[in-house]
Amino acid sequence: MNGESGTATAITGAAVAAPPGARARPPRGRLRTRPRPGRRRAPALLAVLALALLPVLLPGPSAAAAGGAPSAAVAQKEAGTGGSVTVTGRGWRPHTLLTLLICGQNMIGGTNSCANGDGRTATTGADGAFRTSLPVAEPPRPCPCVVHVASVTGPAAGADAAFKVAGHPVAPLPRDVSAGRLAVLAQPRLTGSSGLLTWFGAPAQRELTVTVGNLGSAPAKDPVFQVGTSHGVFAPKWEDQQWRGTVPAGRKAEVRLPVELAAGAHGDYLVSLKYGGRLLVEQPWGVGRPWGVTLFWVLLCVVVPTAVFRVGMAIVDRVRPTRGTTAARGRRGGRLARYAGRHTRNRDPGGTPDGAPVLPWFTPDTAPSTTTSTERPTSKGSA
To answer: Collapsing DSSP states into helix, strand and coil, what is residue 232?
Structure first.
């Protein structure tokens, strides 16, 4: 028994010895098999794919900036006229053109309360941030003042940063008398038509008509609307317009506001209406091309060269000799030639009268005789 057990011993991790001719059994312990080539490539491919998708899955600085609201900040809270203030901002759309203005009364009256002549522009970077220097100027309205930052291209966006202009007067903010909540109840429309002057480049004018209703509990007295016009990818240019009237609570009223474009404007425009910082309506407006201006330039290019040509021909006709003068000179030259010819014939030694043919090859001595002799032949038999 011991001998038989010693001849065949089981070793963990190795194959059991079998007698000759017997089928080998698989080992019962751990087997160290060789991995297949395909199993090695799978983890490598997964790692490469994860590295490739990492920038997409992780939010970058631009995505984080786009998700938050745009903001603006000033380096110093107060500065005097003639100095400058450093303005920074974050959360703006990448590569967007911005305008920076110093405004009074917290810009309640729109850009009319800002120092527009001393404003500056800035362009955001790829991360939606900017940093620029803004000269300090006194706005036309008293403080409290703000540095207003607004987008020029792309969707409308804005932000304010509190700022104090040293030495500028301070006044309390105006009381808001339009406490009602207005909403548009009907489809807006643009009324009016273009006249003959618009065909020649005059500013196009329309009237925006909207029906608003007061959803609040207080009447809206003399509400101030913001009317903006935009063209293409540019942001709207807002203008404050106050409607004279009162909309009682729970009632509606028809509001008419004038809209005017710049001279020579044409193409597809968008008219927007805001109230209380909330966009109410957007109405498209197609403006025709001022063909009268094109016709004027075409006529100018035709008439001016024609007039210059006519003036030039008149000057040439005035400077060059006339046809009558040329004929008189020709007649005078003919008389002189005839006079010279007569004197030449009178000085001829032959003394021929005027008008007689002159034969220079004959002279009185060599001229043939006027008498001719005819000799008759002798007849036969005559002596």
So the answer is: coil
Which residues have CB under 8 Å from 92's CB, separation 6+? 65, 70, 98, 124, 128, 129, 130, 151, 157
C-beta separation of 259 from 190 below 8 A = yes
Q: Tokens for 132?
A: 């620029």
361 by DSSP, 3-state: which?
A: coil
Position 251 confidence tier, pLDDT thresholds 50, 70, 90: confident
Alpha-carbon gap, residue 179 to 351, rounded angstroms: 132
Yes or no: say if 158 and 111 are a contact pair by the CB < 8 Å rule: no
Measured distance CA(163)–CA(73) in Å, rounded: 9
DSSP E strand stretches across 104-142:
120-123, 130-135
Tokens 């911005």 belong to residue? 98
What is the C-alpha separation between 181 and 353, in angstroms, rounded? Answer: 128
d(CA 258, CA 190): 9
The label of the residue with tokens 């967007």 reads 96
120-170 pLDDT tens trace: 999 999 999 999 999 999 999 899 999 999 998 878 788 999 999 999 999
150 and 235 in contact (C-beta within 8 Å)? yes
Phi and psi at residue 350, in whole multiples of 5°? Answer: -70, -20
Which residue type does 49 have? L
Between β-strands 158-166 and 278-287, what pairing exists: parallel, antiparallel or unpaired?
unpaired
Contact between 84 and 74 (Cβ < 8 Å): no
Tokens 């036969």: give the residue. 380
